[in-house]
């Protein structure tokens, strides 16, 4: 199987790229490929590639058309780990130069408008090829197709996924450390949530998402809280489960995280619409006092705890706010604009993974189905731990599906064309098999 002289182009070398780069360099060595990493921060890219003989680093601003097009023109497969709003810049050049494109992000609506062009160009655009979305789709469709092939009728589908801190590294009152894009942590839940429960459509506003957390037990790892993740309803059609009575996709967190985050939301500390520029270089507790006065008409954090926070939760909320440094004298940096910017800054500094810390990814599908007049339940779970603060579980579960897909394309084992997400057997069967070979395996009970 010869794939000599093939070139993989990767845009972005951030948190999620570490394991992907390692995997692609292993395959590049095996198959005589080249991996080119295009990144504005050359030192970051060099640290990830470590001068591997099958690697090249390209300093590139993706908004510069000529440089971007030149890099894409020389590639066989393009992978974008850029922020989602930048995927379209890469996508339009991939269409023009007939290059395959892989992303871990939800399908961009501007890219979807070019679905016919992608098909006619004879190339594959494979989106939602990370963890969530990505592994969730593939593992769910494996179960759904298998149940249906045996005559089963699915009554309830619940899919849970969380990027968490491993128990041995859990040492703070939030029971959480950041292993992926911190802006996504701050903005989680802002779109509200929609799901189906017992044939009824449930709609939650942002202020209700974290206030509606329920609990689920996961095999060997214990009980976690979960909150509804965005709009679950379109996935009923994608998974061909339109008649299913209950359908929900959720995010897992520690129960204490949900309690604390609800207070951040209620207090307006995640707001990104109103300017907080006047608090640049001010002590963070001055900003916190201002926000609490505006929202609750209280004069201090102590009064907020006394008047607003229910008694049983006061010690926890105090610990959480203090741990983030929100009640202290640390100065707010120059680059902030909104409350969300301030919060993100303190989250990044106080909830970061230390070098020896390990993160953890948990995914759990709960399916109830009827077969021959009898109800059955299956729980299918995946648990992955990181090795350290760089080779994280998040980097493994986001990066490996992308790397495997690139390998399959270049070795002519994935010949699909057009715009796809990984919900069909031609994709999920070989990818899940190779994920198992890399110790990412679901346990069904």
Helix-strand layout with pairing:
Layout: E1 7-11, H1 18-31, E2 34-39, H2 42-49, E3 55-59, H3 65-73, E4 77-80, H4 87-97, E5 100-103, H5 109-112, H6 115-120, E6 124-126, H7 135-149, E7 153-165, H8 182-187, E8 193-197, E9 200-204, H9 206-209, E10 214-218, E11 222-228, H10 233-238, E12 246-253, H11 255-266, H12 284-296, H13 301-307, H14 314-323, H15 339-350, E13 359-371, E14 374-385, H16 393-410, E15 418-420, H17 425-437, E16 443-444
Parallel strand pairs: 1-2, 1-4, 2-3, 4-5, 5-6, 6-15, 7-12
Antiparallel strand pairs: 7-13, 8-9, 10-11, 11-12, 13-14, 14-16
Helix pairs in contact: 1-16, 3-4, 7-17, 11-14, 16-17
Pfam family, one: Sacchrp_dh_C
Protein name: Saccharopine dehydrogenase
Keywords: Oxidoreductase
How would you explain this protein's 3D organization?
- The protein is built from 17 helices and 16 strands.
- The chain has helices at residues 18-31, 42-49, 65-73, 87-97, 109-112, 115-120, 135-149, 182-187, 206-209, 233-238, 255-266, 284-296, 301-307, 314-323, 339-350, 393-410, 425-437; strands at 7-11, 34-39, 55-59, 77-80, 100-103, 124-126, 153-165, 193-197, 200-204, 214-218, 222-228, 246-253, 359-371, 374-385, 418-420, 443-444.
- Helix 2 links the parallel strand 2 (34-39) and strand 3.
- Helix 1 runs parallel beside helix 16 (393-410) and helix 3 crosses helix 4.
- The mean pLDDT is 95.
- A 7-stranded parallel sheet has the order 3-2-1-4-5-6-15, sandwiched between helices.
- It has 445 residues and is an alpha/beta fold.
- The chain starts with 6 loop residues before the first strand and ends with a strand.
- The protein folds into 3 domains: 7-131 and 394-444, NAD(P)-binding Rossmann-like Domain (Rossmann fold); 135-261 and 354-385, Dihydrodipicolinate Reductase, domain 2 (2-Layer Sandwich), CATH 3.30.360; 277-332 and 343-350, no CATH class.
- Helix content is 38%, strand content 22%.
């Amino acid at each position: 199987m010869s794939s000599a002289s093939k070139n993989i182009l990767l845009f972005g070398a951030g948190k999620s790229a570490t394991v992907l780069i390692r995997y692609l360099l292993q395959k590049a060595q095996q198959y005589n490929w080249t991996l080119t990493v295009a990144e504005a921060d050359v030192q970051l890219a060099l640290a990830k590639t470590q001068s591997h003989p099958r690697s090249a680093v390209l300093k590139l601003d993706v908004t510069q058309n000529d440089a971007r097009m030149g890099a894409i023109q020389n590639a066989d497969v393009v992978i974008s780990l850029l922020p989602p709003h930048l995927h379209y810049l890469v996508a339009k050049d991939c269409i023009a130069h007939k290059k395959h494109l892989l992303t871990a992000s939800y399908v961009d609506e501007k890219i979807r408008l070019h679905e016919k062009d992608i098909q006619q160009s004879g190339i594959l655009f494979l989106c939602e090829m990370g963890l969530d979305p990505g592994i969730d789709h593939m593992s769910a469709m494996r179960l759904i197709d298998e149940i249906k092939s045996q005559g089963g009728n699915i009554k309830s589908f619940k899919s849970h996924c969380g990027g968490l801190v491993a128990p041995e590294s859990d040492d703070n009152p939030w029971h959480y450390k950041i292993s992926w894009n911190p802006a996504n942590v701050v903005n989680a839940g802002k779109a509200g949530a929609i799901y189906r429960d017992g044939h009824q459509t449930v709609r939650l506003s942002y202020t209700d998402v974290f206030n509606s957390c329920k609990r689920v037990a996961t095999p060997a790892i214990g009980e976690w809280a979960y909150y509804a993740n965005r709009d679950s309803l379109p996935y009923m059609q994608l998974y061909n489960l339109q008649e299913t009575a209950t359908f929900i996709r959720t995010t897992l967190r520690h129960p204490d995280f949900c309690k604390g985050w609800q207070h951040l939301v209620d207090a307006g500390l995640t707001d990104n619409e109103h300017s907080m520029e006047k608090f640049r270089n001010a002590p963070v507790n001055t900003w916190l006092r201002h926000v609490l006065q505006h929202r609750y008409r209280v004069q201090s954090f102590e009064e907020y705890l006394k008047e607003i926070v229910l008694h049983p939760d006061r010690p926890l909320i105090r610990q959480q706010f203090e741990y983030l440094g929100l009640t202290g004298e640390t100065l707010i940096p120059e680059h902030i604009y909104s409350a969300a910017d301030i919060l993100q800054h303190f989250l990044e500094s106080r909830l970061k993974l230390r070098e020896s810390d390990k993160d953890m990814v948990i995914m759990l599908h709960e399916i109830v189905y009827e077969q021959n007049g009898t109800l059955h339940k299956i729980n299918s779970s995946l648990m992955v731990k990181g090795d350290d603060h760089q080779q994280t579980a998040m980097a493994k579960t986001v990066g490996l599906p992308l790397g495997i897909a690139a390998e399959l394309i270049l070795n002519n084992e994935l010949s699909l064309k057009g715009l796809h997400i990984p919900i069909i057997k031609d994709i999920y069967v070989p990818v899940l098999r190779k994920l198992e070979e890399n110790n990412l395996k679901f346990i069904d009970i």
